[in-house]
Specification:
135 residues, alpha/beta, three-stranded mixed sheet, 21% helix, globular
Length: 135
C-alpha cells in the first residue's frame, strides 16, 4: 500500500481499556495490524497504537493507571471493515479464527448477511463485511 501524502488526514480511533495485552493479541495477531508504537507511564497512561502500513487510520488503546475503563456499553459498538475481495475477506476471517476467536452473532442482523463479526476482549466488535461500501 502506498504511503499517504504528508498532508493527507489520518484518522485515529482511541479508547480506554483494562486489557492492553489481550487487545494487542486481538488486533495484531487476529486482525493483522502492525504495532506502530507502545508507551508506558506516559503522564499516567500506558498504551499501544496499531495500524496498517500506509493506512490512513490507527487504533490507540490506553490504560490510565488510576481509572477502570470497563467493557463496551452495547453489543452494537462496531468497527466495520468493508472487504469486497472474496479472498481478502476469507483471509481476514480465517486469521481471526486461527488465533482463537470465534465469530459472534451480530446485534444488527444486517452485518450477518454478507459479513462476520468478532468481539474483542473488551466487548467491542469488529465486522468484516464482504462487499464494498455503497453510498
Amino acid at each position: 500500500m502506498n504511503e499517504p501524502a504528508k498532508s493527507a488526514p489520518v484518522l485515529r480511533v482511541a479508547r480506554p481499556t483494562d486489557n492492553i495485552d489481550a487487545l494487542l493479541h486481538f488486533y495484531r495477531d487476529g486482525m493483522g495490524f502492525e504495532l506502530l508504537s507502545r508507551f508506558e507511564a506516559h503522564n499516567g497512561f500506558d498504551g499501544i497504537i496499531l495500524g496498517g502500513s500506509g493506512a490512513p487510520y490507527h487504533l490507540e488503546f490506553t490504560r490510565a493507571h488510576s481509572h477502570t475503563a470497563g467493557r463496551a456499553p452495547t453489543k452494537d459498538n462496531l468497527l466495520v471493515f468493508y472487504l469486497p475481495d472474496e479472498t481478502a475477506y476469507g483471509q481476514a476471517r480465517d486469521r481471526m479464527e486461527a488465533v482463537g476467536y470465534t465469530p459472534v452473532k451480530s446485534f444488527n442482523p444486517w452485518w450477518d448477511a454478507e459479513g462476520v463479526t468478532f468481539e474483542d476482549p473488551d466487548g467491542y466488535r469488529v465486522v468484516f463485511y464482504n462487499d464494498s461500501w455503497k453510498r
